[in-house]
Amino acid sequence: MKLHYKIILFLSLSLALNSCSKDDSSADEVQKDNSTLKTFKDVKFSLDFTEGFDAGRYFSTELGKSYKKSQIDATILPKIDVVFYSGSFSFNYFVSPSNVEYGIKNGATTLYINYQREQLTLEQFNKLEKGSDLDAIKVDADDNKSFPDSYVPNVVLFKNAAGKKGAIYIKSVQRVGYDPKIVVDIKIQK
Questions:
Q1: Which of 9, 13, 35, 140 is at 20 to 30 A from 90, Cα to Cα?
Q2: Which stretch is the leader sequence (predicted)?
Q3: How many domains does the chain have?
Q4: Would you say 150 and 170 are in contact if contact means Cβ atoms under 8 Å apart?
């Protein structure tokens, strides 16, 4: 008789847990237009200029992958559109892949606004649901301004060589310990 109750209890708990997990996943998918906006969560960029740790300094929004400079070949090169550089805790910025000092030879051009608060706030970034939400932002020239670690969280705006606009939400900076890195979320028009 006790075995019968254990089986019923087990089945009841399994059904309850199963139904909860299904409800949670469908709630996240509601009201997102994945056909016009790409979102990348927890992308890591190395704070080590030599890239001796796990994270790289180069990212392709087309491929959805980070790279170290040594991993970039002729096929990947034109697809790199986000590059990060950090000289110190007070000198961080995203640069064009075509940047002479910190980019890649023959890299594509991406324009950035590294230091802004007027065009797109963190709250607005979190509410982006479709590509057209980024139409109103203006990224006319690469400003090459840096931002300090203390300016995190921060939203950086960009426009890649294909004319697609995007935003980078800088979530955290980790300079202490193994693998110093900056962690971001990226949203870009498809």
A1: 140
A2: 1-21
A3: 2
A4: no
- Partnered with residue 159 across adjacent β-strands are 111, 165
Regarding whether 90 and 76 lie in a shared domain, the answer is: yes
Is residue 147 over pLDDT 90? Answer: no
Alpha-carbon span 20 to 185, nearest angstrom:
27
The pLDDT value given to residue 52: 65
Residue showing tokens 């139409």 = 135
Biggest distance spanned by C-alpha atoms of the chain: 77
Which domain range does residue 3 map to?
A: 1-30
Report residue 39 as tokens: 């979102």
Mean pLDDT, residues 29-48:
77
Is there a single domain that holds both residue 10 and residue 58? no
- The model carries a pTM of 0.78
- Exposure string over 24-62, b if 16+ CB within 10 A, otherwise e: eeeeeeeeeeeeebbebeebbbbbeeebeeebbbbbbbb
Between CA 96 and CA 158 the distance in angstroms is 9
